């Protein structure tokens, strides 16, 4: 029953706009239900909010008090994803700690609500926790462990994409949907513009899964989407300062989580409502706020090496008539634009990366209903992983691999231990020819040196395979893009690194900054 | 033992100041945490490659006037820059030439190093770049594609290095050790296409025996052989470092490495002695701060964005704000931070017997201007002149 079937000729055709976790999840769900899917993504898969995030596969504990039902959904999805895609999940575990300033009594409610939501919560003695986590405050009053985990977003979206392709679906990256064709009250297809020109694609149903850009995409057909854009900024530190994701035990606000992921730690997030989804600029004041607010939890934070900051924009669902003072729920919402006379056009918003699968299941159910199909979602049951071995993703996997294969010969990226062979196989098997896309798949340029040394090495490998490379100052673009994140943290060791990087790129290589992308704003 | 001069830091500017001061016959001591940034430098002698609007500069001296008025070159004056460079480079014709970068791009240098590849070398010629297998710090394919696009004729030859090493320093030393260079180059010659008219190597062709190796290569292969710089560490930079320090050691200059200066003693207007992090004190009449700016730890930036001078606690100029507005302005602000001085390189606020040189000076941007060696050499030279004048004054008064 689970074997992939070829798509029948009269299978309904679905277009999914947006290649983040949501769009990839929806495309997989629908292709498993027999739809012929085309996923269209503006940039590279997972280059939107799905990677500008905090890295957590939530147990739901964070929302246990404010929205117990949503917390329970997170917990179910957390288990499900760890089962179906273990190689992108690291089961770090999570902690909630009460510090002297945190509101009294919240921790007791937290404990009860976790239990109600089905989240296995356990109180631990503060001395034990402070012993296990030497970098956190010595003032911990109470501590609770919960099964929070971390997830590698690009690993996830690429697993989803591989599965979609295996089932006959098509994925168009670097294509922007610029028009949605509606004739006689029904959606007929979309127009997408890519490097090789404009393309019109027909469809029976179009799903807008463009995250924070949803309102913009809906407006292509004069529709609205009730979205609130919540920008969050995150500060990146080298090393894993903590071994588990650590939250303050207080009502979820800003600046209260530190997450170990890969070889680094993420502290965040700031939060503010913004009016454009393209805002990836981190203001200097936000950095100071982040540092200041991190100090109660990690007292020595200013002496650690921060090497980057980024911001993402949450596509939060804002129900009509929502009391503006209350924080918005993290639940998702599906808009059927058929209700406004555009049959076959749907928008999905809200939710989180953790719940991308249940969101996809929900919209899939509605779309099947629309077509009168009796297919139920199979995404919870069929593993996404390629191997049957259920290995936990290990952040130092690259290093282990180097040791195992005794391949010390040709390191490309020393920070993340990526070898020449890894890059060559990406060139040969995936035809990748942008430095940025290597980074997302292999982690080159992720580490503290931020591409200072590996950028030109990868470029030279690309040049070996493609005599046209490098076109359009690709190396300069890559370097400028890396700088856009690391310039926010120009103090201490990272200031030295930036000056070194600048002298290597400009003085030694003769590369110039890419003027087109100098302003630290994204635009699309 | 008290010396006439103490130089804090072993940057190019410090080594130049020391070299000049021993010419005058003074006693000099160099105190440094470790090797200077010559180990990271790009090969070549950058005096002024680009003006402030990033236009390539033909005559560096003429372009000095277009720099900001606090720029080190403007502070010490064009005539001093000329004198210093003439003293060091034995050249005064004042025009730039284009060297070939490892990305195949042009970098203006005031004088090519011996055997350094320039665009003149490959013009209208069939060039081959040698990529030693597994040599990760060199990017021959990138260089060749870029040069071909610009209309040059360049191909890549992958070749086994004399040893399995993949790192610059180890490779360079393996050439020094090579017992029979003639047969190595003969093997290389056989792999070359007959059309090759000029051969480009990564700048790893020997460390101490560089000259001998390159002479041998040209003799055996029978065509001009050149070197293209690599990713750091920079062997040409290390060769220069080695030349300068060996010469200084011969002149009895003591170079202490592993010494981090964190404290000092003064009489209010003059610095008397400096103390390192394990409490050793060193006395001198003059102190030269050649600590390499942000890059080498001479300047430290705290998490609030304030810049500190780390050896003597000198006041630092910093353009407001250091934080990110856009990538280029923030990078620029990082470079421009430093100690502001008078025309003789004495800090505007601070001790009268202190000079500051090179990357620790404010108001210049080596990456944007491609001016690193020029500023380091000329400020090192001027600091030595200032020290000389002061020491003369002390002796006479
Ligand atoms: C700071 C921050 C921290 C977070 N932390 C967590 C966390 O720890 N755990 C968690 O589970 N969730 C977290 N979230 C929430 C989570 O990241 C998002 O809910 C989720 O990634 C949204 O995914 P998406 O696919 O809907 O949107 P996106 O990932 O933004 O995908 C939308 C895609 O649509 C594309 N697109 C836009 N317009 C067009 C067009 N016209 N044509 C084609 N493509 C288009 C975009 O390029 C983009 O790739 C966080 C969010 C933020 C901002």
Can you put this structure into words, describing what you see?
- The complex is a heterodimer of chains A (524) and B (397).
- Chain A has helices spanning 21-32, 68-84, 106-117, 126-132, 153-166, 214-218, 284-294, 356-370, 397-405, 420-430, 435-442, 454-465, 474-486, 492-509, and strands spanning 13-17, 36-40, 56-57, 89-90, 94-98, 122-124, 142-146, 149-151, 170-172, 175-183, 186-194, 197-202, 205-208, 227-238, 245-248, 257-261, 264-268, 272-273, 306-317, 332-336, 345-350, 411-413, 418-419.
- In chain A, a hairpin with a 2-residue loop joins strand 10 (175-183) and strand 11 (186-194).
- Chain A is built from 14 helices and 23 strands.
- In chain A, helix 1 (21-32) runs parallel beside helix 5, helix 1 packs across helix 8 and helix 10 packs across helix 12.
- By secondary structure, chain A is an alpha+beta fold.
- Chain A has three domains: 13-48 and 154-227 and 330-371, FAD/NAD(P)-binding domain (3-Layer(bba) Sandwich), CATH 3.50.50.60; 54-149 and 228-317, D-Amino Acid Oxidase, subunit A, domain 2 (D-Amino Acid Oxidase, Chain A, domain 2); 397-517, no CATH class.
- In chain A, the strands form five sheets. In chain A, strands 5, 6, 7, 14, 15, 16, 17, 18 and 19 form a nine-stranded mixed sheet that branches. A six-stranded mixed sheet of chain A has the order 9-2-1-13-21-20. In chain A, strands 3-8-4 form a three-stranded antiparallel sheet.
- Residues 1-5 and 519-524 of chain A have low confidence and may be disordered.
- With 397 residues, chain B is of the alpha/beta class.
- Chain B has two domains: 3-92 and 236-396, 3-Layer(bba) Sandwich (FAD/NAD(P)-binding domain), CATH 3.50.50.60; 117-228, Rossmann fold (3-Layer(aba) Sandwich), CATH 3.40.50.
- Chain B has 14 helices and 15 strands.
- Chain B has helices at 12-23, 60-63, 72-76, 78-89, 119-122, 140-149, 168-177, 181-191, 210-221, 235-250, 293-296, 327-336, 366-369, 372-396; strands spanning 3-8, 28-32, 97-100, 106-109, 126-132, 153-159, 198-202, 225-228, 254-257, 261-266, 271-276, 281-289, 299-301, 307-309, 354-356.
- In chain B, the strands form four sheets. In chain B, strands 1, 2, 9, 10, 11, 12 and 15 form a seven-stranded mixed sheet that branches. A four-stranded parallel sheet of chain B has the order 6-5-7-8. Chain B has a two-stranded antiparallel ribbon with strand order 3-4.
- In chain B, strand 1, helix 1 and strand 2 form a beta-alpha-beta unit.
- Chain B is globular, with a radius of gyration of 22 Å.
- Classes of the chains: A alpha+beta (524), B alpha/beta (397).
- At the A-B interface, helix 7, helix 12, helix 13 and helix 14 of A face helix 6, helix 11, helix 12 and helix 13 of B.
- The structure holds flavin-adenine dinucleotide (FAD).
- Flavin-adenine dinucleotide is lined by residues 17-23, 40-43, 47-50, 52-56, 58, 176-177, 209-213, 217, 232, 234, 268-269, 312-315, 351-354 of chain A.
């Amino acid at each position: 029953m689970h074997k992939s079937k070829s798509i029948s000729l009269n299978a309904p055709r679905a277009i999914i706009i947006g290649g983040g976790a949501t769009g990839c999840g929806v495309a997989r769900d629908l292709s498993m239900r027999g739809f012929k899917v085309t996923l269209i993504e503006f940039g590279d898969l997972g280059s939107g909010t799905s990677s500008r995030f905090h890295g957590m596969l939530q147990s739901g504990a964070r929302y246990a008090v404010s929205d117990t039902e949503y917390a329970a959904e997170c917990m179910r999805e957390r288990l499900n994803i760890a089962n179906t895609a273990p190689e992108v999940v690291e089961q770090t575990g999570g902690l909630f700690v009460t510090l002297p300033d945190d509101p009294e009594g919240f921790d007791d409610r937290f404990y009860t609500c976790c239990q109600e939501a089905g989240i296995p919560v356990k109180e631990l003695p503060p001395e034990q926790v402070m012993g296990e986590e030497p970098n956190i405050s010595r003032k911990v009053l109470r501590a609770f462990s919960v099964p929070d985990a971390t997830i590698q977003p690009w690993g996830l979206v690429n697993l989803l994409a591989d599965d979609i392709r295996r089932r006959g679906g098509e994925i168009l990256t670097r294509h922007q949907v610029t028009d949605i064709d509606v004739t006689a009250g029904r959606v007929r297809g979309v127009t997408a513009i890519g490097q090789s020109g404009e393309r019109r694609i027909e469809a029976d149903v179009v799903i807008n899964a463009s995250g924070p850009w949803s309102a913009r995409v809906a407006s292509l057909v004069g529709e609205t989407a009730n979205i609130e854009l919540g920008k969050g900024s995150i500060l990146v530190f080298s090393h894993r300062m903590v071994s588990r994701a650590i939250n303050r035990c207080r009502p979820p606000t800003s600046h209260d989580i530190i997450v170990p992921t890969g070889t680094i730690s993420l502290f965040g997030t700031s939060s503010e409502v913004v009016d454009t989804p393209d805002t990836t600029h981190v203001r200097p004041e936000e950095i100071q706020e982040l540092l200041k607010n991190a100090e109660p939890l990690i007292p020595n934070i200013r002496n650690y090496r921060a090497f980057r900051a980024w911001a993402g924009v949450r596509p939060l669902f804002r129900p009509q008539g929502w009391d503006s003072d209350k924080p918005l729920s993290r639940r998702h919402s599906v808009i059927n634009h058929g209700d406004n006379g555009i049959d076959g056009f749907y928008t999905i918003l809200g939710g989180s990366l953790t719940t991308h699968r249940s969101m996809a299941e929900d919209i899939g159910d509605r779309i099947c209903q629309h077509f009168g199909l009796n297919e139920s979602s199979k995404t919870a049951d069929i593993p996404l992983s390629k191997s049957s071995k259920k290995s936990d993703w290990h952040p130092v996997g690259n290093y282990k691999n180097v040791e195992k294969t005794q391949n010390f010969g040709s390191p490309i990226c020393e920070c993340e231990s990526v070898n020449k062979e890894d890059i060559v196989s990406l060139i040969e098997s995936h035809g990748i020819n942008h430095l940025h896309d290597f980074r997302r798949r292999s982690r080159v340029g992720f580490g503290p040196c931020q591409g200072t040394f590996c950028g030109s090495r990868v470029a030279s490998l690309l040049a070996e395979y493609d005599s046209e490379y490098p076109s359009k100052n690709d190396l300069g673009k890559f370097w400028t893009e890396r700088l856009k994140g690391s310039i926010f943290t120009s103090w201490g060791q990272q200031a030295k690194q930036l000056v070194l990087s600048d002298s290597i790129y400009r003085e030694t290589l003769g590369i110039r900054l890419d003027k087109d992308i100098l302003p630290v704003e994204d635009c699309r | 033992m008290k010396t006439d001069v103490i130089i804090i830091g072993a940057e190019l500017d410090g080594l130049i100041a020391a070299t000049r001061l021993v010419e005058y016959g003074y006693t000099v001591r160099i105190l440094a945490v470790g090797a200077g940034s010559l180990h990271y430098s790009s090969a070549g002698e950058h005096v002024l490659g680009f003006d402030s609007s990033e236009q390539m500069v033909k005559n560096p001296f003429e372009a000095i006037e277009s720099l900001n008025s606090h720029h080190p070159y403007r502070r010490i004056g064009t005539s001093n820059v000329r004198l210093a460079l003439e003293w060091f480079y034995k050249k005064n014709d004042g025009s730039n030439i284009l060297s070939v970068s490892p990305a195949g791009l042009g970098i203006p240098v005031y004088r090519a190093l011996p055997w350094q590849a320039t665009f003149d070398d490959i013009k209208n010629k069939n060039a081959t770049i040698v990529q030693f297998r597994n040599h990760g710090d060199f990017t021959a394919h990138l260089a060749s594609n870029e040069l071909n696009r610009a209309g040059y004729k360049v191909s890549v030859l992958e070749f086994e290095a004399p040893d399995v090493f993949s790192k610059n320093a180890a490779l360079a030393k393996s050439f020094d050790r090579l017992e029979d260079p003639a047969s190595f180059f003969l093997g290389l010659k056989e792999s070359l296409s007959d059309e090759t008219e000029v051969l480009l190597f990564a700048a790893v062709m020997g460390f101490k025996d560089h000259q001998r190796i390159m002479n041998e290569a040209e003799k055996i292969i029978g065509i001009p052989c050149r070197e293209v710089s690599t990713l750091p560490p920079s062997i040409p930079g290390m060769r220069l470092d080695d030349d300068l320090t060996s010469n200084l050691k011969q002149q009895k200059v003591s170079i202490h490495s592993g010494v981090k200066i964190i404290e000092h003693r003064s009489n209010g207007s003059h610095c008397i002695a400096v103390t390192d992090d394990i409490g050793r004190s060193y006395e001198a009449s003059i102190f030269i701060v050649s600590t390499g700016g942000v890059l080498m730890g001479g300047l430290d930036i705290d998490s609030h964005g304030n810049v500190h001078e780390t050896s003597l606690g000198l006041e630092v100029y910093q353009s407001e704000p250091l934080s990110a507005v856009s990538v280029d302005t923030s990078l620029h602000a990082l470079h421009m931070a430093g100690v502001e001085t008078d025309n003789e390189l004495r800090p505007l606020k601070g001790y009268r017997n202190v000079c500051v040189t090179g990357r620790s000076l404010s108001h210049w941007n080596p990456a944007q201007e491609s001016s690193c060696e020029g500023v380091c050499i000329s400020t090192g030279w001027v600091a030595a002149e200032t020290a000389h004048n002061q020491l003369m004054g002390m002796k006479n008064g």
